[in-house]
Amino acid sequence: MKRARVVVDGAIHEAVKHGEQLQLPSGRIVATKEVQWLPPVVPGTVFALGLNYADHAKELAFQAPEEPLVFLKGPNTFIGHHGKTVRPDEAEHMHYECELAVIIGKQGKNIPRSKAYEYIAGYTIANDYAIRDYLENYYRPNLRVKSRDTCTPIGPYLVDASDIPDPMNLTLKTTVNGTVTQTGTTKDMVFSVPVLIEYLSSFMTLNKNDIILTGTPEGLAKVYEGDHVITEIEGLGQLHNTIISDHLER
Amino acid sequence: MVNAYGRIQGTAQVQNLWLQSSSYTGIFATTTAPLDCPVEGCVYGTALNYQGELTKLGPKLHEKPYLAPPNAPILYIKPKNTFIAHETPIPFPEDSDYLEVGAALGVVFKEHVTNVSVEEAWDTILGFTIVNDLCIPHDNIHRPAVKYNARDGYCPVGPWIVDRDDAPNPDQVVIRVYVNDELQQTGHTKQLVRNVRQLISDVSAFLSFNPGDVLLVGTPENRPLIQHGDTVSIEIEGIGKLTNTTVSLKEGVR
């Protein structure tokens, strides 16, 4: 099942994918172009991984870390499918990052990797934009780079875990204005999804709707005002996003 | 009497409390009912926002791994699993002999805050609370410290939120930390690098706050260390006193 949170006629609905359309809880079928997409769940605590693909770490001139490089993102940063992400005009180095997002389904602590999949509700796509102009070496990557308003599109669907038999073997792809700029496979993660769940839950309690963004593979490219960015993961669909300037907000 | 906001144990909603010295009166409760954690939003911590912390680092700010002094506010998130109430136990870790006490004044927002000026910042504040921003001691703050500062129970908050209009000037308050009733640290918010209004303005330029979110203004240098069994209190003049005791994880806390 593919589940979405959408706004239709002024109300929020928990919809499910129905062919190429969406079905609302009332049974009503709506075309996807009639809806506004929200993040597929209201995010709880959101973890993100730095340098979790060896090729990407190399691209940024880092060795892959020996322990997961985890940071947290605030609720302000998330937007839905077909949303608009604000790019400061002054920025030079704004990059997309296509990432497998793991949505936790129930509370757990000290979860062994062998039982990790029991705690996963499903998967979605995140585009974990970074504005590297603002990198500083304190709690790097700092929140000004990674937790900006509108800079983490997520969706379109929460795809049930049972529909994704092997999340560690999915292809990822990013296109900018129709040109493929990033490809990879979740096989290349340094720390796999079960290892990340074991690691995080070894020192803190995970809760339903907590989300783990598992890092991005090689293939960075700069994005500019007006760019149409599609992040795509096998079996999960395509997450569309458009870059807008911040000049309207000043 | 001072107007404050708190959550009386067993009631879901934050309600008005009227404080009289160390006791309070609520709508539904007598003065003895225990209080739950008064906040539910996102708690953002700020690092290196006391002059003394920067002074202590001195030339290290220019060396590896930092290479340059900080420019923008340095933030981190204390997630929901870390929140605990006044007078509830702090789970003491099994892999460290000490916890570090971060005595923080917390600014609680009453509305959505985006890109506000220094002048506008004051009007976004609901009130002020006390936060014990606990962490396991670690060498540096080059990388995010989730494993050290986001464990269950590492963010005691409370006992309540004092209304902005009944609180002292947040840039002129004394903060005292007591461990087992002995004074271990004294800080003063006049030493902030960015004062409260400036910090709100600078952060809200890139990160919006929601109503109920909390921004910690920082923690003074020379953070006290506590051990298993210690009782720690943070007292902020005009706000109150937040007290918690550490217990072993094996004693069955959460």
Automatic annotation (TrEMBL), chain A:
Species: Geomicrobium sediminis
PANTHER family reported in the protein's UniProt record: 4-HYDROXYPHENYLACETATE CATABOLISM PROTEIN (PTHR11820:SF114), ACYLPYRUVASE (PTHR11820)
UniProt domain Fumarylacetoacetase-like C-terminal: residue ranges: 45-243
Gene3D superfamilies membership: Fumarylacetoacetase-like, C-terminal domain
Short name of any one Pfam family annotated for the protein: FAA_hydrolase
Annotated GO MF terms: 5-oxopent-3-ene-1,2,5-tricarboxylate decarboxylase activity; isomerase activity
Phylogenetic classification of the source organism: Bacteria, Bacillati, Bacillota, Bacilli, Bacillales
EC number: 4.1.1.68, 5.3.3.-
Record protein name field: 5-oxopent-3-ene-1,2,5-tricarboxylate decarboxylase/2-hydroxyhepta-2,4-diene-1,7-dioate isomerase
Superkingdom in the source lineage: Bacteria
Automatic annotation (TrEMBL), chain B:
Gene Ontology MF annotations: 5-oxopent-3-ene-1,2,5-tricarboxylate decarboxylase activity; isomerase activity
Domain Fumarylacetoacetase-like C-terminal: 43-245
Span of the signal peptide: none
Pfam family, one: FAA_hydrolase
Domain of life: Bacteria
Family matches, as InterPro entries: Fumarylacetoacetase-like_C (IPR011234), Fumarylacetoacetase_C_sf (IPR036663), HPA_isomer/decarb_N (IPR012686)
Keywords: Isomerase, Lyase, Metal-binding
Documented EC number(s): 4.1.1.68, 5.3.3.-
NCBIfam families: HpaG-N-term
Name used for this protein in its record: 5-oxopent-3-ene-1,2,5-tricarboxylate decarboxylase/2-hydroxyhepta-2,4-diene-1,7-dioate isomerase
Organism in which the protein naturally occurs: Geomicrobium sediminis
